[in-house]
Amino acid sequence: MLKVSRLTKRFGGIIAVNDVSFEVKKGEIVGLIGPNGAGKSTLINLISGFYMPDKGSIEFNGKEITKSKMYERAKMGIARTFQNPRLVSNMTALMNVIYAVLGSERGKKISLVEAYGEAMYYLDLFGLLKKRDIVVSDLPIYELRLLELARALALQPKLLLIDEAMAGLNPAEAESVSRLINRIREEFDLTIIWVEHVLKILMKSVERIIVMHYGKLLADGFPEEVVKKPEVVEAYVGEERV
Amino acid sequence: MEIKFEPRRGRLVIHAFGRKYDWIIEPRYWRNPVIGFLIWLSLPLIVTLVASLINIKPVALISTLIFANILIIVSIPLVLQIIGTGRVNFGPHFFVALGGYTAALLSKNFGISPILTLPVSFIIGLLIGLALSPITIISRGVYFVLITLLLPFILAELAYWRSDIFGAETGIPGVEVMVHTGNFMNDLIIYFYISFLIGFLYLLIVDRVLRSRYGFLMGVINEDEDVAAAYGIDVNRIKVIVFTFTSGAMAVAGWFLAHYQGSFTGPAWLTPAFLILVLLTTTLGGKGAIYGVVISGYVIAMLREVTRTTFGELSTVALFLILLILLYLLREGFWGLYRKRRYREYEPSIRIRRKT
User: Fold this and answer.
1) For B192-210, how does the pLDDT look when each residue is reduced to its tens digit (9 = 90+)?
2) Residue in B219, B227, B350 nearest the CB of A116
3) Which of A40, A218, A235, B52 to pair with A97, CA 20 to 30 A apart?
4) CA triplet A192, A193, A195: central angle to 5 degrees?
C-alpha cells in the first residue's frame, strides 16, 4: 500500500530523515518508535504531505505521491492526527467532524444534512456524541485525542497516520485510546502507521515495529524481536526501559 | 373582509384574507432579518421625516446614507475575503479606485453607458484580483498587510504621474451620471436605492456562500490552513477564488461612485482615512458578521456626518476618537450586542429545509 524509498529531509544542517526506505502492506498496523529527535514525526509529516522531501519518493497504492500536496493526499485516503491536537478550536466538536466529512473525497457529493448525520456517527463511535456542542477549546486532552481520531476517520482514510495519540494521557485513557484504534482498524479495514512513545501499549497493538534513530531506520520487524536487538536497546538507553 | 385578532399565550394569531398569520409577541423570536430589511429599505423616508421634524435639509442626511451604503458595499466582500483567505486586506480602496477609474475612463472617453461600465468594472477588478491572488498563498501576517497597503499608494502615484489620463487630484470629470430626473432630492433617493440594491445583493450572496459547504470550509482556512489541508481542503484554490471574486465586488463600489458623482477622483478614495473607515466598518460589525457590517456602516457614516458638522476642523480627530472608544467598548462589535440578546445560537449553523 505504501512504499517509501530513500526518503531524506534536511532542516538547514540537520538531517531529520536520512535515506529511509520501507513498505507497509494493506491492513498492517505498524509502530514507529525512536528516541526524541529520531525523525518519527518528520517522517509522518513527509508521508502526509505536511513537508516535502528533499530526496526520495513515496508511493501510495501504486501511485507516485511525492509531489502531491497535503489536501490531495488526504483526498487519496491518507489521514493523520497531530502530536499536539490541531483542530478548529473555536468551533464545536460536531463542526470539526462535519468539516472533515465535507473535505473528504465524497464530500462534494453529499448534502450538509448528510454530512451532519455522518459526523454524528463518527462522534458516537468515539463516545463523543454528548460533547458534540462543546467548543473544542473547552475539551480535555483525552477528548481532543479522540476527536482528532474521529476527524481523521471522517475522511474515510485507507491509511491512518497517528502521531503520539497517547501523549498527555493517563494509563487508563491511553489503554482506552489503544483499544479504540484497534477497533477502528478492524471495523474500517485500515492500514495504520502509529508513532508512539508508550512502548508497552504499542507492543500489544502493533504487528510490526520500525525503529528510527538520528533520522535513520535502525530496525524493522516483529515487536518482540526488534526491541531485543542490541542497537535498539543502545539507542533507548536512558530514554525508556523496554 | 374581516380581520380577526386572537390573542394566545405568547403570540397573536391574525385571521385575515382567508389565511392565518402568527405573530410571536416575544421580541427575540421576531423575524429580525425581515424587520432589518424593512428598516433599511425605509431609511430615506425615516431620515426625511426626522429632518422635517428638526427642521434641517434632508439632502445631507440622504448623502450620508449613500456613503454608508458605499462602506457596506466595500466591507461585505472584505469580510468574506477575510474569512476565506484568513488574511486582512489593507487595500480594499485599491479595488474601489480600479472600478472607479475603469467606469470613468470608459464613460468619458468612449461614451459607454453605466449599464455597460458595470460589468467591465467588475471584470477588471476580477482580473486584477486574480493576478494579485497569489499573494494570499505566498504571504501572510505583516507581509500580506504591507503588500496590500502598498497597492493603493502605487495607484495614487500612477494617477499623479499620468494626470493626463487619471486627472490626479482633480479627477476625471464628465462621467455620465446614472440618474438625472431634474430633482436633486429625487436623484439622491434613487442613488440610495441603487446602492442599497448592490449592498443587499452582496449581503444575500455572502450569506448564502457562508452557509454553503464552501463557507464551512472557509471557516477552517481562517482558523488554521494546515489543519484545513489535513481535512482534505484545497486551501490555495479557495483563497484564490475568494480573493478574485471579492476584488471584483469591491470594484463595483468604484463604478457606483463614478456614476453617482459624475466624476472620479482616485486620490480622494485612495486615502488611509477611507481605508480606516472601511476596516472599522468590518471590525465594528463583529467578527465575520456581515449583518453587523450593515449596522456599523450606518453608525460610522452618521458619526462622520455629525462630527463634520459639529467639530469643524477637528472633525476627523473627533470621529476617530469616538470610533476608538467604540472599538474598546464593543469587543465583539455591534453584532455581538445583538447576539447577546439571542436565546441560543450556534455559529455556524445548519439550516435543514424540509420538503413539504
Assistant:
1) 999 999 999 999 999 999 9
2) B350
3) A40
4) 135
In terms of domains, do A145 and A209 share one? no
Q: Is A133 on the interface with B (CB under 8 A)?
A: yes
The low-confidence residues of chain B, meaning pLDDT below 70, are: 1, 26-31, 339-356
Question: Alpha-carbon distance A107 to B232, whole Å?
Answer: 10
Range of the domain at A115: 80-156
Structural domains in chain B, CATH included, are 1-30 (no CATH), 32-341 (1.10.3470)
Are A228 and A239 part of one and the same domain?
yes
**What's the Rg (C-alpha) of chain B?**
22
**Residues near B321 by Cβ (< 8 Å), separated by ≥ 6?**
none
Grid coordinates standing for B226?
A: 494546515
Q: How confident is the model at residue A229 (pLDDT cuts 50, 70, 90)?
A: confident
Handedness of CA B62, B63, B64, B67 (dihedral sign): positive
Residue-wise pLDDT tens digits, A92-140: 899 899 888 888 877 778 888 888 899 999 999 999 988 888 998 889 9
Question: In chain B, which residues have their Cβ closer than 8 Å to the Cβ of A89?
Answer: 223
What is the C-alpha to C-alpha distance for residues B102 and B116, in angstroms, rounded to an integer? 11
**Rounded Cα–Cα distance for residues A218 and A48 (Å):** 22
Residue type at B68?
Answer: A
Nearest alpha-carbon partner for B322 in B352, B353, B301, B337 = B301
- For residue A133, list chain B residues with Cβ-Cβ distance below 8 A: 346
By C-alpha distance, the chain A residue nearest B226 is A50
What's the rounded Cα separation, in Å, for the pair B255 and B73? 11
Residue after which a domain boundary falls, among A156, A179, A210: A156
Residues in chain B: 356
pLDDT for B352 equals 54
The reply to whether A94 and A185 lie within a common domain is no
Q: Examine the domain organization and report whether A178 and A242 are in the same domain.
A: yes
Q: Indicate the residue among A121, A156, A191 that finishes a domain.
A: A156
**Chain B contacts in chain A segment 2-41 (CB below 8 A):** none
Radius of gyration over every alpha carbon of chain A, rounded to an integer in angstroms: 18
Residue B26: DSSP 8-state: S
Does A173 lie in the same domain as A133?
A: no
Which residue in the block uniquely carries the three cell numbers 479595488? B95
Co-location of A119 and A187 in the same domain:
no
Model confidence, pTM: 0.82
Sole residue written with cell 485507507: A158
Strands A2-11 and A78-80 come out as unpaired
What distance in Å separates the CA atoms of residue B210 and residue B77, rounded to the nearest whole number?
12
The count of domains in chain A is 2
